[in-house]
Amino acid sequence: MHTIPQPQPDARPDERLRLSPLVLGLWRAGRVQLPRPRLVELIAASLDVGIDTFDLADIYGNYAGEQAFGDALAASRVPRDRVRLVSKGGVCLVSDARPAHRVKHYDNGAAHLRASLDASLQKLRTDHLDLFLVHRPDFLFDADELADTLRQMVRAGKARHVGVSNFSPSQQRLLAARLPELAANQIELSVLRRAPFEDGTLDLCQEQHCIPMAWSPLGGGALFTADAPDMQRLRTALAEVGEALGSATPDQVALAWLMRHPSGVIPVLGTTDPARVRIAAGAADLRLDRQQWYHIWQAATGCAVA
Ligand SMILES: NC(=O)c1ccc[n+]([C@@H]2O[C@H](COP(=O)([O-])OP(=O)(O)OC[C@H]3O[C@@H](n4cnc5c(N)ncnc54)[C@H](OP(=O)(O)O)[C@@H]3O)[C@@H](O)[C@H]2O)c1
């Protein structure tokens, strides 16, 4: 079995998290059980356009997605230090792979998260993640216990950085009060899901230098497939701004619209199509001016700002 060569440990706890400007997410790849040659192709296309960060979770592909990705990465013979690996734990599915789970639940307790991280490392054939995220806030999370657990992961060298996902501003603030080095909050964010612009999530990320990672940045594809009249209006606005930016495609504009925010939003792409990965990467070269940004906001909300 090919093992990915490991870099020498050089983690400095105060080193800022660095991810590629766009990240490739593997949720859908796990769901459709993308065959290994297709995964290898997807990894190659991503690296080719500078996307070196891959987003996973223990539960993807009914707990089999990390193994499939780890195998594909090994088959790709990509050195470990050429990629950045993000994974998550904290959601517990009812699954034949987890017979002890009687009900779907969240578990941000120390024992579950530690075991989850260890399993991720084994499946991904690595000794560390670049970023471990608490997938969803457990209503029963104890901030002291969770901060301690995450800090220990970094101290043990198993995660270079730690963060959260789907945490509300108050939950993020609570945990960050115990663990100021929270590196990221992965949230649902797109032209179709704009609440984080207004509910304090992106403000808090900016305040805390915590990277907002945007999941479903293209609305899970609804941006291109839904045919309600307001969606047509939004597509027209994306096309108009794309034209003004020099033939940029609507998906590039929708991603660049997110990346324009000063909190440093990093979109997590969900496509399983290498050609779409290559196109999406072009978003990093676009910069919308204010009026273009608000033109899209207005098309998305259906009204001008007050
Ligand atoms: N933290 C969390 O709780 C959480 C939750 C959900 C997702 N995530 C992460 O976020 C990632 C992205 O989520 P997502 O998959 O919903 O993202 P997305 O990029 O918004 O949606 C991907 C979907 O849109 C389609 N699509 C992309 N570009 C298109 C285009 N130009 N025209 C038509 N269809 C297009 C894709 O189809 P093709 O594959 O055919 O291109 C795919 O079905 C996941 O992989 C996962 O890593 C995290």
TrEMBL record:
Residues 21-296 form the NADP-dependent oxidoreductase domain. Pfam families: Aldo_ket_red. InterPro entries: AKR_Detox_Biosynth, Aldo/ket_reductase_CS, NAD(P)_OxRdtase_dom_sf, NADP_OxRdtase_dom. PROSITE patterns: ALDOKETO_REDUCTASE_2 (PS00062). It comes from the Bacteria. One of its GO terms (molecular function) is oxidoreductase activity. One of its GO terms (cellular component) is cytosol. This is NADP-dependent oxidoreductase domain-containing protein. It comes from Rhodoferax koreensis.
